[in-house]
Amino acid sequence: MTADLILRGRVITMDDARPSAGALAVRGDRVLAVGDDLDDLDGLRGPHTRVVDVDGCVLPGFVEAHGHFLGDATVQSPALVDIRPVVLATADEVLAAVREAVATRPMTVCNGWEPLLQKGLPEPTLSWLDELAPATPLIIMHNSGHAVFFNSAAMRQAGLTPTTPDPPGGRFTRNAAGELAGAAYEPAAISMVTGHLRDGITDAAPALLAQSARVNARGVTMMSEMAFDPRARPLLENVPLTTRLRLYEVSTSALRSDVEPGAGDDMIRQVGIKTWADGSPWTGNLAASFPYLSSGERHAPNYSTAELLEISRAYYAQGWQLACHANGDEAVQQVLDVWEEMLGGRPGDRRLRIEHASSMRPEQFRRAHALGVTCSLFPDHIYYWGEVLDELFGADVAGRWAPIGTALSTGMRVSLHNDSPVTPANPLHNVAVAATRTSRLGRAFGTGERIGVLQALRAQTIDAAWQLHADDVTGSLAPGKYADIAVVSADPTRVPPEEIEDLTVDATFLAGRQVHGDPLG
Fold first, then answer.
1. What is the pLDDT of residues 106-158, one digit of tens each?
2. Are 406 and 481 in contact (CB under 8 A)?
3. Which of 320, 341, 168, 349 minimizes the C-alpha distance to 256?
4. CA quadruple 507, 510, 512, 516: dihedral sign
5. C-alpha span between 205 and 207 (Å, rounded)
6. Which residues pair with 109 in a beta bridge?
7. Smallest Cα–Cα separation from 321: which of 362, 281, 376?
8. What are residue 346's phi and psi, to 5 degrees?
9. For 70, left (φ over 0), alpha (ψ -120 to 50), or beta?
10. CA-based radius of gyration for the chain
11. Pick from 98, 196, 200: nearest CA to 154
């Protein structure tokens, strides 16, 4: 048996049986063999084998374990106006983009409103939104995904009335008369404002293919969709994606899915159920033991303990992996209490996931690990919002935010993520931030939570794939696994951590086929 392709150079496999190699052989869509050098693989060379010398480093394709592939594709499509702080830095730019869209579109949907970073944005009250767009629907989604602001025309279009009640796990703002006041918080309420928008999508293929190309350019070969709506399933049919997807369906009051756990194949598979125990620190609804300094307020979790237990028990009994968003330590406490009761105090083997775990305490990580619970953390909170965290909660909280080092110290396997489109999927950037804990303004936060570069790379490859129940097919470069590969311009473990985000992904392969970069060789 001969190889179709042999890559010769520095190879980091993320396979514990052989962590590094000097050559990698690919046949068809799989890794055929790894060796110390080309001579080790000499017997696999045939007359049609391509042998390519790699100047940089060969790594497994990166895995974004907590992203929103469909959401990212949508908000970066022409149908929406992208006003995220990673795109528009100032309030003036944001307001100009919104006004231009309202003047030229029959309906305007914007994504990325973030007044903590885009200083000077007005309060998006219903009266302001109606003045801005008196006749056409206007919807502005907060960058966090945990709030949406809408005018009266958008409310009518969504079929809402002034007295529409709050759904379980979400809420609307209301005026003194108890009528809707133009804002919805948390996915349960947000979907009531935006859910109908998908009905107008007839051809999502270009947006999905563009999304695949964007993440492939960052070396990503697998990504999750952490807020999957089953109504979007037809959008994925017959689209030749170049990114593997793992879908987490949003929990509903029906307490069931219309498919069985694991439905799909190695390209697209539905593996879990997603719930939100609290909101976002940036929208004022973090459920934590510490208050917002400016107001002294604390926010309760989205669900009562009884409600969250009912949801968790129902889906877990059906065989689903559970993933629960919990930024605040009080939300984490509720999740752990619920899951421990659900598990009967015994460790589970379903790889239950706490998402973000932003202010999770050391004893909570120890308890979680003992229960078989794993966490996915968001280092870009430090990079983009480090100074904001200090302002909102104080230096102590900012220093222990996204405590990746603490999580690893318990023996827990973790993943790193960007929660795209909140911040762009960029694993090399995540690795740099996890290793330096430095904000975009150059300030270090919680240096004791720094982790090693190799640890961070594991959290973006094999350990992330493990969280997605996909480590049997991808996440490491081992014989028999898919040849999902990222070729990086230099070995991230051999450059200063602060330089890692400047490395480039020269080529990306999915199942042995190059899907990004100039042809090698």
1. 999 999 999 999 999 999 999 999 999 999 999 999 999 999 999 999 999 99
2. no
3. 320
4. negative
5. 6
6. 139
7. 376
8. -100, 150
9. alpha
10. 23
11. 196
